[in-house]
Structures are given as structure tokens and as C-alpha cells.
User: Which sequence fits this backbone?
């Protein structure tokens, strides 16, 4: 994973609440055995007409979405299934961060493990951002992970929460498996002490 | 002198022993499974049972391969196939969709290569992952259970801590049998009163989600309590816990009791003989202690509930079956109002009117929410001696091979077929529409599954979620129907 520190990106607004993972990536694309190639199917049923042509009314098909790296979405983003294909698809499209007033638990965890930043802001900030995105098609925001701040067009900085452990991993660009593996002696000691609660074989 | 808190000293100080702190069911299981908890890091949580299916595991196995790792505890891992497999009778001969076929074959290769037990198609153990875990007796009280699938919450019905994980976490568990987890908060959801006739587990959970909303449980593990819960069968408890995720909760759980033990006794993977007695002794210690503290409590009055049905595009958009649909114009919050408007437009429904009588095209009885034997029996009772409307396609899809066999022994398929229904092979089927079973654009279905998201059951399809009896009654009438008149 590439380390994440600070980046500036163009914002695309999607003012819909409770966007579920079936909208982010419909189930019929889950038959793949890879992580790649999902970006083209991101928001597929909103993005393409039944003819297969891009739906010109959908914001990701409009010029302003070109080169955008930050998705600004409504409350409770990523609810529904645990499919990690959702962050894979968002990243496949080019997104590096999603801003919302809240995220579903599993989705948020999946994002953090893939280097897609789930940025939680309060309602007033969210409203300000949607206004700004309406006024300026080229709205740019700066996200700084180290200081956990988002710099708004007005120059105001808002802090966003992120758990300390995930932050450390993202800043260093390391995945979390290594941390567990380093604790193998403790895991073995636990197993020796507790024994098997169940066996499948 | 001793009192209930510990020694009372002459000075008048009371010393509370830390050991006597009352704990919730969740806290007991959590504390039992923390391997390491370092400051500033999430807990390393031990996983007793890891369930695996074809859709969310291929990239995880590939990750192991890339790192040169093995599956550390294949004996704590159980795989099956359910999501992308067809439910047609010829599926053992061929899976016609080449991409699905490849995914299923990849699971076989992965299980073979990494020594993971696989309940493959054609065997008696195959089925929807959340149906077979309990059926085999793998899911037991006090355990941690995970699966790359959000409806893992189902297993909480046994007093287990069970939750869905992403594919990266599937890889973590395969490699280490552990998971990094921040401790969630706890909420007690107390169902108050007695459920009226015709109101079952599915209605209880739809009522809860309608009350708290699809994000209402975010960050929480829910423990369901109250008379209406302890009266539920294990199958009803599974239906209830299954949809915890639809309220945004990390997990749902129910304290184990005699109903739980009765269900588990004699199952292939449940403890046997003296081990069984010891296990039950242990499990009896699991229920939340009197005075245990939850982060919040949610009350649901069940005494006036009706059979529930959803009308919108998320599971929180549900009403009692005779109730009018809410009107966006009457909602004060503009975001909520816009969301409701969008849902009603997608569903092509009018606000202010009940759904009763709304014509439908398909009825789906199945999924990890409602495909167990009791669900099929309930549906069969309604359908016995009646005919499915000729405007409706009714699909009945058992949750597992064992459910299928049991139903066949009881003569249920004959009842379904005589009514004009299809009796299919075990799998997720039209719950997820990635296996050939799906709605066509614009069609309406009444489904016993758990998600009514846009396109969930096929692009452009429109889903009403309800119980098996409501689904069966609607199949007969060719329109959304109140099941109560068929239940006397
Ligand atoms: S039946 Fe539906 S919800 Fe359940 S595991 Fe299968 S796809 Fe998921």
C-alpha cells in the first residue's frame, strides 16, 4: 500500500443518503476472483442506461467528475453488505477519500484497510461542502492525515476522527496483517490455554 | 461482615470487588476472546469459527498465496457455496454462467490447496452459509463467529458474537485465526409486550428497523431481550438476528437458554456426552448479569404490531401492512423527505395509501432470513389447498440441502407444486440476483429476504420485504395481502 500523508483533490458531490453497497457495486459484478477492473462498474445502475450508454444525468458522467478523487456523499454511506468490492470499485474509479456525516461499520473498516479515507464531518460542515460544490465545479479540498484535518475552500480547517492504529498503518503504508503476525506467540499461548471451542473437521 | 459487594470495613468504606462487576453477554464473550490488547491499538480477537463462501474469499486466498502463507486453522474454518450458484436442477452437470463457474471452481481449488473443509454442491451439508453453520452445530453459545458476509449476525441467535467482515479481514483470519477489532458499544433492545397473532420474528425485526432506521445501530452490538424474544424458536431468533445489520448494527445477539440447548443437542459438531453437559454448564453462565450496563436501551412495543412490509428501497422503510405509506410532504427533515421521495419514485408508489392490494409479479420465499424448515412449514400452511395467482411466479428456495430433504420428508414440495410454485435447489437465489434468479426491470416482488435496495433482486426490480406467511398470502392474491385471514 502507498503511504498516505496529504493530498489535494477535486470533489464530486452525490447528495444521497443511505447509499448502500449494492448501489456502489451491484452483486452481479461480484463473480470476479480479482480486485481489479471494478472501477468501470462503480455505481453501475445509476451510471449507465439500459442501452449500456452512460447516463448523462449522473454526475460521474459529467465533465466535472473527470480527475476527481474525493466523493462527497450523504449520511450513512456504505450500508448493506460487507463486500470489499465497494472500496475496490471506488478506488478503481480514482477516489482516494469519501466524505460523509457517517459510514456503515464494515464499509468503514474495509476502506481503512485499502487506503480509501472515510472522512466523517458534522452536518454543518457537510452542508457547507455541498453548497461549495454546487457553486464551484472545480472545488478542491486538502486532506491531511497526519493532522487529521480537512481544509475547506473558506480556509477553515476541520478535524476528522480516525482511529490511531489505522492512521499509523496508513501513514506508513503498511497493512495490518503484520501486526497480528508479530503477536503469534501470544496467539499460540491463548490457544494452549483455552483449547478448541469447536472443530470443523 | 460481608455484604453483596464485599467486605464492609469498620471505617464505613465499602470495597467493590472488580470481579463482581456485572457483565453483559457481549462483554463476557469479548473478554474471553481478547488475545492481546495494546494501548492505542485495536484488540486482537480470537475467532472460533470462520465461515467462507465463494464470493468474498478468492482474493483472500490469493493474498495468502502471494505472501506464502497457509490457512493456520483449517479445523476452525468451514467453506460452502451459495451466492453465485444456480438453483436449477441441472446445476451439478453445468453452471452455465462461465464467470460464476470459474468462481465456484476457484473455491474448490482453494479449499483443496489450503485444506479447508468444503460443503460442496451435491453433498448434504451444502447450503446458505448462515443456514448450515447452525444446522451442523458449528455455531455455539459463547463463540466468536465471522464470515465475509454481513448476515453473519444470524449466528448471534445462539448467544455467540458473530459479525461480517471484509475480504482483507478474511485473509487475516485465514492467516492467523485472529482479527483486529475496536470494542463496539452495546445496546439492549427490549421487546415489550406479547406479539399478536400473525406477528412473527420477521415482523419484529422489520418493526425495530423501521423504528431506529438503517443507521440506528451503527457502532453497536445489539442484545435482544424481552418475553417476545424468549418465546421465539431458534429459527425465529435467527431470522431476527439475521437482520441486525439492516439496522446498521455490528452484531445482534440473544442470550442462550433451554431453547438454544435443545436445538443444538445431537447436532454433528455440537459437544457430545460428558462434553455436552460441561458445555451446557458453561453456556448457562453467559446471559447478561443482573445490573449489567448497556450503553443504551431501545424499547420496542410489540403488543400493537401488525404484520410488517417494506415499501421503499431500504429495510428501514417499513410499515404495518394496513398502514398508509408516509408522505414526503409531511417530513420536516429535507434530507429525509428527499430520500423518501426518491424511494417512492423508484418503487412507483403513491404516498398516503397502504400497500394492501398492490399487484405483484414474483414471490420469493428463501434467503438466510427465511429459508429454514419452519419458514417453509409456515408458508405451506397458507398455501395448502390453495392456488398461486396466475399472474404470479412463486419461487420456494430451501436454505440448505438438509432443509430441502426435511421438507421433502414432510411432503411440503407437493403442497408448493400443487399451488403452482417452483421448488428449487438450495442457495441464495433471488435474494442477491447474481445466480440467474432475478426480477426483470419494473417487476414487483414480495420477498422473505432481507434487502430491498434498488436493483438488489435484479436491475430495475422492486422489492417488498415481508414474512413467509405474508409472502404466501400475497402469492395467492397476486397482490400484497394480509396473512392473518389465512392463519385461523
Ligand atoms: S441469502 Fe442473501 S443475504 Fe443471505 S447470505 Fe445469501 S445473498 Fe447474503
Assistant:
Amino acid at each position: 500500500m502507498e503511504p498516505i500523508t496529504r493530498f489535494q483533490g477535486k470533489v464530486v458531490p452525490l447528495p444521497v443518503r443511505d447509499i448502500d453497497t449494492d448501489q456502489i457495486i451491484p452483486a452481479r459484478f461480484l463473480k470476479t476472483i480479482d480486485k481489479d477492473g471494478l472501477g468501470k462498474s462503480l455505481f453501475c445502475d445509476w451510471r449507465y442506461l439500459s442501452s449500456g450508454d452512460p447516463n448523462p444525468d449522473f454526475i460521474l458522467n459529467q465533465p466535472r467528475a473527470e480527475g476527481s478523487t474525493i466523493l462527497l456523499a450523504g449520511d450513512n454511506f456504505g450500508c448493506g453488505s460487507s463486500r470489499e468490492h465497494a472500496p475496490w470499485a471506488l478506488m478503481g474509479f480514482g477516489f482516494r477519500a469519501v466524505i460523509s456525516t457517517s459510514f456503515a461499520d464494515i464499509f468503514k473498516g474495509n476502506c481503512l484497510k485499502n487506503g480509501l479515507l472515510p472522512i466523517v464531518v458534522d452536518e454543518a460542515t457537510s452542508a457547507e461542502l455541498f453548497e461549495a460544490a454546487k457553486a464551484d465545479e472545480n472545488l478542491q479540498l486538502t486532506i491531511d492525515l497526519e493532522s487529521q484535518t480537512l481544509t475547506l475552500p473558506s480556509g477553515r480547517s476541520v478535524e476528522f476522527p480516525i482511529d490511531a492504529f489505522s492512521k499509523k498503518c496508513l501513514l506508513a503504508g503498511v497493512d495490518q496483517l503484520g501486526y497480528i503476525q508479530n503477536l503469534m506467540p501470544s496467539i499460540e499461548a491463548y490457544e494452549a490455554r483455552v483449547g478448541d471451542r469447536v472443530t470443523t473437521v | 461482615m460481608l455484604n453483596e459487594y464485599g467486605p464492609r470495613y469498620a471505617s464505613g468504606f465499602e470495597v467493590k470487588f472488580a470481579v463482581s462487576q456485572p457483565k453483559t453477554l457481549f462483554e463476557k464473550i469479548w473478554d474471553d476472546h481478547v488475545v492481546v490488547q495494546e494501548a492505542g491499538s485495536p484488540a486482537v480477537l480470537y475467532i472460533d469459527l470462520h465461515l467462507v463462501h465463494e464470493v468474498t474469499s478468492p482474493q483472500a486466498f490469493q493474498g495468502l498465496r502471494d505472501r506464502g502463507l497457509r490457512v493456520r486453522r483449517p479445523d476452525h474454518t468451514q467453506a460452502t457455496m451459495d451466492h453465485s450458484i444456480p438453483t436449477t436442477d441441472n446445476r451439478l452437470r453445468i453452471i452455465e454462467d462461465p464467470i460464476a463457474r470459474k468462481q465456484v471452481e476457484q473455491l474448490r481449488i482453494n479449499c483443496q490447496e489450503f485444506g479447508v473443509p468444503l460443503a460442496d454442491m451435491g453433498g448434504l451439508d451444502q447450503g446458505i452459509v448462515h443456514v448450515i453453520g447452525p444446522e451442523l452445530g458449528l455455531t455455539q453459545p459463547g463463540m466468536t463467529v465471522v464470515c465475509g458476509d454481513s448476515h453473519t449476525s444470524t449466528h448471534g441467535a445462539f448467544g455467540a458474537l458473530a459479525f461480517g467482515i471484509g475480504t482483507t479481514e478474511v485473509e487475516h483470519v485465514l492467516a492467523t485465526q485472529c482479527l483486529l477489532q475496536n470494542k463496539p458499544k452495546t445496546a439492549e433492545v427490549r421487546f415489550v409486550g406479547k406479539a399478536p397473532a400473525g406477528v412473527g420474528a420477521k415482523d419484529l425485526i422489520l418493526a425495530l428497523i423501521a423504528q431506529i432506521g438503517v443507521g440506528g445501530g451503527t457502532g453497536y452490538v445489539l442484545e435482544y431481550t424481552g418475553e417476545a424474544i424468549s418465546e421465539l424458536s431458534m429459527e425465529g431468533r435467527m431470522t431476527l438476528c439475521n437482520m441486525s445489520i439492516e439496522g446498521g448494527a455490528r452484531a445482534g445477539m440473544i442470550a442462550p437458554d433451554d431453547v438454544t440447548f435443545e436445538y443444538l443437542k445431537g447436532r454433528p459438531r455440537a459437544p457430545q456426552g460428558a462434553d455436552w453437559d460441561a458445555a451446557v454448564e458453561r453456556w448457562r453462565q453467559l446471559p447478561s448479569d443482573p445490573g449489567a450496563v448497556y450503553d443504551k436501551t431501545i424499547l420496542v412495543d410489540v403488543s400493537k404490531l401488525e404484520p410488517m412490509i417494506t415499501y421503499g428501497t431500504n429495510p428501514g422503510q417499513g410499515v404495518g401492512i394496513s398502514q398508509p405509506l408516509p408522505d414526503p410532504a409531511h417530513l420536516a427533515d429535507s434530507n429525509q423527505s428527499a430520500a423518501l421521495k426518491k424511494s417512492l419514485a423508484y418503487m412507483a408508489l403513491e404516498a398516503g395509501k397502504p400497500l394492501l392490494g398492490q399487484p405483484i409479479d414474483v414471490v420469493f420465499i428463501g434467503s438466510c432470513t427465511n429459508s429454514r424448515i419452519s419458514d417453509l412449514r409456515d408458508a405451506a400452511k397458507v398455501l395448502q389447498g390453495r392456488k398461486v395467482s396466475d399472474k404470479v411466479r412463486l419461487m420456494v428456495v430451501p436454505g440448505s440441502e438438509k432443509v430441502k430433504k426435511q421438507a421433502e420428508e414432510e411432503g411440503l414440495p407437493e403442497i408448493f407444486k400443487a399451488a403452482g410454485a417452483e421448488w428449487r435447489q438450495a442457495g441464495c437465489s433471488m435474494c442477491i440476483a447474481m445466480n440467474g434468479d432475478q426480477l426483470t426491470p419494473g417487476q414487483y416482488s414480495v420477498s422473505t429476504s432481507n434487502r430491498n435496495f434498488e436493483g438488489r433482486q435484479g436491475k430495475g426490480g422492486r422489492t417488498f420485504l415481508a414474512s413467509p406467511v405474508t409472502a404466501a398470502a400475497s402469492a395467492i392474491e397476486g397482490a400484497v395481502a394480509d396473512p392473518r385471514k389465512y392463519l385461523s
Summary: Residues 200 and 236 of chain B are 7 Å apart (CA to CA). Chain B touches chain A through 79 residues (CB under 8 Å). The first strand of chain B starts at residue 2 and ends at 3.
